[in-house]
Structures are given as C-alpha cells and as structure tokens.
C-alpha cells in the first residue's frame, strides 16, 4: 500500500449518531456525513429511547438529536445521555429558529442547536467545531437565545465562581461578551494558547462544557 493510502486509512474519523424520527431526513444526513473522509455515521435511531441505546453501544463523538420525537423526545434523551461517565457532545436539531425547548437544551448541556434546513457545509463544519470542543448555534438565533436568558430574573451567583482568579474573571467577562480567543488575546496582549488555557480552566472550575454554556451562565447569574 502506498504511503498516501496508509495516511488516508489511518486518519481518525469523527463518529456520529443520528437520532431523528424522519427516515428520509436521516438518510440524507447519513449520505452527507459519510461523504467526508474524516466523518462517519456509526448508528441511527428513530426516537429518543432507541437513541440512548444506540449511543451507548456505538460510543460516538457527536450525536445529532432531533428535539421533537415520539416515545422519548430529544431533551429527555439528551439529559439521560449527559449523565453517562463519558458522554458524547449533543447537537440539537430543530425546525424552529428558537423556542423554549432549544433554550432548555442549551441550559441542560447540549453543545448547540442547528436548524434542519441548515446549509450542508454549515452542518459539516458544525460537527467538526463541536468535536474540537466549541459549540454551535444557528446563526439566525444567537441573539434571541441570549436575550431569552437575559430576560429572566438573575439567579444567585454560585459559590464556585469565587474560585476564579482575578485574571480568569477578566477572561470570563470577555468570553461572556462573545469574543473569540483571538479577539481576547489581541485585547489583553496574550497569546491565543494562553487564552485557551484560561478558558479551559474557567470551564472546569465552573463545571461548564463549552463557551455557549459560559455565556448562558453569565446571563443567568447577572454577570454580563
């Protein structure tokens, strides 16, 4: 086998499970995902209960989870999966720009949500982005999502917030405004690697999965 062939075969795949009650939609997403050399669909399910079983057997990196399904909806299935010791990252799929269900999913630990009619290239990029540790939200709904949390009465700030150093609080505030690592680095005269380290420590100390949850945390507790 040529060196090129060995490299292609050795390339690790991002393992994806599809959970949606529309078989035609699943078939289209499977064809799209499987067309990529670094992505692989390793399982499908037509409802949340079946999805939990498939995910626990297949051990995917990413789950594309419909919100509204029979037997068990996507919110309940996601909440169940996130109790596992090493849960996958879950991206919710919805027909609507933003509703209470999508907001609850983000609050509950989902790594974002996408519209079902999203551009195929955006969906592929979203899978890779979430796998890399970031989060994705349908672009048209970002402002509405954060406004949803901002409109609610602030909750008491958890005691764990006090564990952040002064520098980490500064980085937290900038990240809560939606600034990227590069933008924070430029503003604070830091390297992007240093900012990334700070963000990782902040997420760990606050028990958050990603930057979207960081922003939600800030809005919910009046820290913006």
TrEMBL record:
Q: What GO biological process, any one, is recorded here?
A: phosphorelay signal transduction system
Q: Which InterPro entries match?
A: CheY-like_superfamily (IPR011006), NreC/VraR/RcsB-like_REC (IPR058245), Sig_transdc_resp-reg_C-effctor (IPR016032), Sig_transdc_resp-reg_receiver (IPR001789), Tscrpt_reg_LuxR_C (IPR000792), WalR-like (IPR039420)
Q: Where is the HTH luxR-type domain?
A: 157-222
Per its UniProt record, what Pfam families does this chain match? Answer: GerE (PF00196), Response_reg (PF00072)
- Could you tell me the superkingdom of the organism this chain comes from? Bacteria
SMART domains documented for this protein: HTH_LUXR, REC
The record's PROSITE patterns line, in alphabetical order, gives:
HTH_LUXR_2, RESPONSE_REGULATORY
Sorted keywords for this record are:
DNA-binding, Phosphoprotein, Transcription, Transcription regulation
Q: Which residues carry this modification: 4-aspartylphosphate?
A: 66
Could you tell me which residue ranges the Response regulatory domain spans? 15-131
For this chain, one GO molecular function annotation is: DNA binding
Give the protein name, as stated in the record: Response regulator transcription factor
Q: Which organism is it from?
A: Microbacterium rhizomatis
